[in-house]
Automatic annotation (TrEMBL):
<dbReference type="InterPro" id="IPR027417">
    <property type="entry name" value="P-loop_NTPase"/>
</dbReference>
<dbReference type="InterPro" id="IPR049050">
    <property type="entry name" value="nSTAND3"/>
</dbReference>
<feature type="domain" description="Novel STAND NTPase 3">
    <location>
        <begin position="88"/>
        <end position="142"/>
    </location>
</feature>
<protein>
    <recommendedName>
        <fullName>Novel STAND NTPase 3 domain-containing protein</fullName>
    </recommendedName>
</protein>
<dbReference type="Pfam" id="PF20720">
    <property type="entry name" value="nSTAND3"/>
</dbReference>
Amino acid sequence: MAPLSDEEENYIRLALLLKGVSPRAVRTFFDKEFPPTYLPSTLNKNYNTLNGLFKNRILNRAQWNLLFPKSEQINEELENWKKDDKTFIETNGAKCVLKCIKENGCVVVTASSGSGKSSLVRHVALQMQNEGYEILPVSNLRKSSSGTIQLRRYCL
């Protein structure tokens, strides 16, 4: 594998900072101000306000679906992933991605179009689901429906 250029290395560092460190710091602060146990009731109490923001296009569909996901829609998408995953061949790359996510909290997967990035990340997400993580697919409405994947772990 070719070494990364300084520009590529800086991009990866920035991506890890934005995706790994910043969200944890913001979440820690946010959780102190708004405890997660009260989040569903807070969202439901402010549903009309949030709905107004959605109708006025301040919140987009992807953001709305994060706040109020349709569980049947998520389950259907995950079932499609599981069906597709039956033909997935485990590679060292998949093992490496899983290891990196567990160690660092995030990973950047880059490759040429059509090389299997979405299949790889979905496979890893399904493995993490088996370990207690909740999968919440997030689609980018401007691109294909493959989108990105958020993984959240809930402590019981």
